[in-house]
Amino acid sequence: MSQMTLMGSVATILHVLIQAALVVRVLLRPHREPASRIAWIVVNILFYDRSLTADMRERQDNYFASARPVTSEMVTHWTWRRRLGNNAIAMLGPVL
Known about the structure:
The chain has helices spanning 3-27, 34-46, 50-66, 72-76, 80-92. The chain is mainly alpha-helical.
C-alpha cells in the first residue's frame, strides 16, 4: 500500500469517527425533539461546512431565545378550539 493510499484511508477513517461522534452527541442532547435530532444528523452529514453550521446554530439559538415556553397547565386552560387549531398547525408545519 502506498503512502498516499494509507493517508487517504486514515483520513476516511478519521472522518467517519468524527461523524459518528457527532451523531452520538446529537442523539444524547436531552433538550432536543426527536425530529430536531434527526435533522441535525442529516445536516451534519450532508453539510459539513463550519460557516454554514455556525449560521444554522445561531438561527436555532435565536429561535429558542424568542420562543415562549408552554406548560401543561397552560394547555389545560386552552379551549378545545384552540387545541384543535394548534394540533392542525403542528400537523401541517412540516409540509409548509
